[in-house]
Amino acid sequence: MKYICLVYSDETDLHGLPDSPKDPECAAYAQSLLDKGQLLAGDALAPVATATTVRVRGGEVQITDGPFAETKEQLAGFYMIDARDLNEALRIAQGIPPARVGSIEVRPVRQLQLD
Predict the structure, then answer these.
(1) Using CA atoms, how far apart are residues 39 and 71, in angstroms rounded to an integer?
(2) What is d(CA 101, CA 111) in angstroms, rounded to the nearest whole number?
């Protein structure tokens, strides 16, 4: 089953705390999941200051700089994984290095029914 592991962290904490992961550690963990056939996709995101939000209300397009909502933690990256069940997905999420300074939201992926 596919799960998405969304990495959330305060951007200053993600790289600024003593326990903050470095890119090589994250890459090594991703490679270990890839080697096991469990990593389907994943990447880090550019800083939230580079975000642009698109909304459509009443047929009118609204484009604004920045994230949709002001929050303490920002979406920093994601891992799309293949796991037997939620318990295995949670075990994988525990190993994602930024979990030490942020949080990992784990959700099942809902397949879209395309024609």
Answers:
(1) 28
(2) 31
Half-sphere CA count of 100, side-chain side, radius 13 A = 15
The neighbouring-strand residues paired with 4 are 80, 107
- Which pTM does this prediction carry? 0.87
The domains of the chain, with CATH numbers, are: 2-108 (3.30.70.1060)
- The letter for the amino acid at 50 is T
Identity of residue 76: A
User: Which of 82, 91, 75, 87 is CA-nearest to residue 43?
Assistant: 75
pLDDT in tens, the chain (115 residues): 999 999 999 888 888 889 999 999 999 999 999 999 999 999 999 988 888 888 899 999 999 887 666 677 889 999 999 999 999 999 999 999 999 999 999 999 998 888 7
